[in-house]
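Lab notebook, bench 4. Still working through the backlog of constructs that have no structural model yet. Next entry is a single chain of 284 residues. Request: give me the structure tokens for it.
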Amino acid sequence: MSRRELERRPEFEQISPDVGELDLDALEQAAAADPDTTLSLLAEMTAATDRDLARQALTIARSLYLDLARRAPARRRGVGTMRSLPYDPDRGDLDIDASLDVLATRRAGVDPSGLRVRGWVRPDTAWCLVVDRSGSMTGAPLATSAIAAAAVALRAPHEYSVLAFASDVQVVKAHAATVDADQVVADVLALRGSGTTDVAAALREAAAQLAASRAGRRITVLLSDCRANAPGDAVAAAAGLDELLVVAPAGDSAEAESFAALTGARCVTVSGPSQIPSALADHT
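Model written out:
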């Protein structure tokens, strides 16, 4: 994106007063006054033709987006199961049956490391984030996608994947791959919009990615307005998922809400990138 294009954005000239410059104080003030506009502008700046500015913006965006995602606490849900666990006085009641051998052989003094307790264990959660890049992939949509990637990466560092789709499906981060969260954020920020909207193919790939997980819960998060314009039965594809949360832009969510109703998915709208972490925490 050229500097001339960026200069049309609010606050840009204050944040970048000259070529290759980024004023951190001005950026901080802009973020405090209007976080969504600033988060969106920062995403656009990572694609600036001014490479020094783009490099600085990317460094800040990776740190800022992860920090924003980190602030929203994960609310662990799901039905727990009672299991025998290594001894910890705060974990539950002593599992007599599982501890009999230790108790019988250590009359003079019991080594607690060999004891077991019975306690509740909630299931781990695996995530697949599916990002629609068929439309405009800049500004707010790009920042929203990158912050969502940061959020799922922090919630399940070893149990998540990230997909981007238009007419085809791009695996940004495979479920089995080990990639630093800040690199995943950077890879999402490098996405560009193009092509038609094949929701069905994206959801089939999400099911394939999650099939590799043994987690008790498997959640697919679809960031899209759900205006599919490619062949394929998206409703049938959604039936292959355990849980689906559709996240749509506020004011443009009619198709997403209809799709969620047809598939039994949950649907939430967000008006800006800063709402993504709390939306995921509150609705999953």
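Notes after review: The CA atoms of residues 27 and 143 lie 15 Å apart. The chain has a mean pLDDT of 89. Flag for follow-up if needed.
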